[in-house]
């Protein structure tokens, strides 16, 4: 007998995004390191943001999003923000709950000046890599990636 599809009804869930991420997932360690590294940047964040006015998106969330974008090779800030809306792993990594609306890609444009002024992205990445090295996490293995396209016929490049 053929089954029927049913329309999903909105329901109230008492669940955390954290419960969807497996306990041994590699991003758990990366997130811990990143948050630990960002503690060193708190004075810079405090100086870069006003103490009055509407609250902004936390710079930690923006930096975690950029780190996620780099780790997963997402091509643009617009794409990573779109994926934050529906990808539970990404939502968890950045610190968004199920009911939070993902921020817009224009948020990066608005905050880029702050990040560039104090080299926040560079400092954050250096701190994360430094902590990983202190803990002996990176190996000595090297690798390469071939990003070439082997079939140009459909692209009009032949």
Structural write-up:
Helices cover 50% and strands 0% of the residues. The protein is mainly alpha-helical and 158 residues long. The protein has a domain at 25-49 and 58-135. The longest helix has 15 residues, at 120-134. It starts with 25 loop residues before the first helix and ends in a 24-residue tail after the last helix. The mean pLDDT is 82.
Summarize it.
By secondary structure, the protein is mainly α.
Mean pLDDT: 82
- The residue fraction in helices comes out at 40-55%
In what range is the share of β-strand residues? Answer: under 5%
Question: What structural class do you assign from the helix and strand content?
Answer: mainly alpha
- Secondary-structure element pattern, one letter each: HHHHHHH
- Please tally the β strands and state the result: 0
* Measured distance between first and last alpha carbons: 51 Å
The 3D shape can be described as globular
- Helices, by number, come to 7
The radius of gyration computed from the alpha-carbon positions, rounded to a whole number of angstroms, is 19 Å
Largest sheet: none
Low-confidence stretches: none
